[in-house]
Amino acid sequence: MSDRLTTIRARLLLGTSLATAVILVGAGLMLYFFVHASLFAEFDMALRSSADALAVLMEQNAEGVTLEPQAANLAEFARSMEPAKKLQIELAKLAKTFEAVGELQGQFQELSETFRAASRGNGSVGATVRN
Predict the structure, then answer these.
(1) CB burial of residue 130 (10 Å; 0-12, 13-18, 19+)
(2) Which 8-state DSSP code applies to residue 116?
(3) Would you say 118 and 125 are in contact if contact means Cβ atoms under 8 Å apart?
(4) pTM for the whole structure
(5) How remote is the C-alpha of 114 from its chain's centroid?
(6) Is the pLDDT of residue 125 over 60?
(7) Where are the beta strands (DSSP E) in the chain?
(8) 11/2 Cα distance (integer angstroms)
């Protein structure tokens, strides 16, 4: 192995390869940390904005913290649908999917029976299917 690194070509190739690898790894790490910091800053800013909007609608007194009545009309604080209703909708979609699969299985069975009958006849599938 030491004989191979004695030529200038081998040393230049090894040095260039190592330098390129170090530069690429460094650039990748820098890009990762910049994107990481940017995403966290954006998330923190959005969270702070939501907290500020919520703080305006909150009221604290001796009885505790309450949400002002007009906040109930805001989309961010209202429930879109009850979980049980969402589950019913998803189950209905699933039932329709199973029904469609059952229909496709029936059609497949009919086609396979037709193909079997045609291949048992005179050996020519086309003759039976064309009739």
Answers:
(1) exposed
(2) H
(3) yes
(4) 0.41
(5) 42
(6) no
(7) 58-61, 64-67
(8) 11
